[in-house]
Amino acid sequence: MRLRTQWIALLAVAFVVLGAGCTEPPSTRPDVAQLSEGLTILKADAAWGVNAAYVKDRRAVFIETRIGALRPEIYRLAWPDDPAHEVDFRVLDQKGRIIILQRGGDTFADPSWEAEIAQALKPQPDMSPEERAKDMELAWEGLGIAGASLPDEFREHVHYFRTVASRIPFHRDPELTARLLELASRPDLQSRAGKGNPGDKGYVYGYYEGGIYVGALAYTGSSVVIGNHTAVDYVFSFDGWQTAYLWVYACNHGRCSYDSGMDYYCASGGYWYYAVSGDMETNSGDNTAVSGACRSPYSWYTYSKYWWGSTGDKNTHLCNDDAAYELWQAREGTAWTSRGDMYSFSWKDPNDNRYACYCNSDHHCAGDWDPPVCP
After folding, report:
1. Sign of the dihedral defined by the CA atoms of residues 267, 106, 341, 100, in that order
2. Which is nearest to 51 in space by CA: 9, 84, 4?
3. What is the rounded average pLDDT of the residues 278-302?
């Protein structure tokens, strides 16, 4: 196949959305029949994001990025060669269903992305493991081509394309598969939260008979002289971990799980009897770890209490607080966990480290420079 990269200036679309912020209507994705083989850049602005399509043998994936907030200074100092901004990206199949999703910070830079998450977790009778595997292979190939095609001004975007494409695709990674199968075999998994009960299938049907498994894998690495940075991967499966249908990277302001220096730490998860929980169905953006984490400002120096006194910034959080909250959401299938929500979350792990979304006098965060134990 002769590879060809096309750049399409969507001037009409640009005029329509002028002044409308960074949201991009999903209807702007062209039909596969309108696209040439190879990579097509549909829209690109280094300070905003990229919309691209990759076509091979009349099968397509769409690759999209959005530039978010400037990363906290602690990360820019620790990793000066990394992207300076929190970057969201996603890969979708030709029907617009999400395959890979990355959140750089606490929320998505483009709020419209939240509305498409629930759709990705609904039953899709035409999505078999074989079809999903083809989408994943094409996604990895497309990311590699995009990473080699964009000019240097897009280096913040290219960093993620190249890094993900250099890894073994998760559906073919034996180490990841073993971790997920071990997680699914744990006797407590199917007893956790879940909306409904085994006899109440809701709209779970077809390939989704039996509900949705949600795995959360925590990865941690040193980010400063003292303290660790923790990122969390979410994996959604509808067939007992034979196939990972949706993979979500929660980078928590810093490096993502697949970045240099990040190592696997622990796993948690849950089993939801509905293919998508009622909370996720509202699409409000505040309902699931997929679409958000803690809502307080970020600070590496969160408020803590010790025997000798108190110190730190009140009503803030850091990456390990995000990770603790995300792990509990995966375990219980909702943002309103038994340990609190994106505002009230507070938890002391078995190592006696404390985590909270608002570290303050009531819910202090002594020990949150360490990664949380997976619940």
Report:
1. negative
2. 9
3. 66
Report the share of the chain in percent with pLDDT over 70.
77
In a domain, 20, yes or no: yes
- What would the pLDDT profile of 28-58 be if each residue is shown by its tens digit? 789 999 999 999 999 999 999 999 999 999 9
pLDDT reading at 330 higher than 80: yes
Count how many domains the chain has.
Answer: 1
pLDDT given at position 364: 93
Residue 227 lies in a domain: yes
Among 127, 57, 68, smallest CA distance to 92 is for: 127
The pair of three-digit structure tokens given for residue 151, joined into one six-digit string: 């000019």
Instruction: List the domain range (segments joined by +) for residue 186.
Output: 1-283
The string over 243-256, giving b where at least 16 C-beta atoms fall within 10 Å of a residue's C-beta and e elsewhere, is bbbbbbbbbbbbbb
pLDDT digits (tens, 9 = 90+) for 177-217: 888 878 877 777 655 534 433 333 332 333 344 567 788 89
Exposure string of 76-111, with b = 16+ CB inside 10 Å and e = fewer, is eebbeebbebbbbbbbbbbeebbbbbbbbbbbbbbe
Q: Are 229 and 223 in contact (CB under 8 A)?
A: yes
Residue pair 193/272 in contact (Cβ under 8 Å)? The answer is yes
291 falls within a domain = no
Q: Give the residue among 105, 128, 117 at the shortest CA–CA distance from 319.
A: 105
As given in the structure block, the two tokens for residue 86 are 């929190």
299 within a domain of the structure (yes/no): no
Query: Using CA atoms, how far apart are residues 156 and 301, in angstroms rounded to an integer?
Result: 27
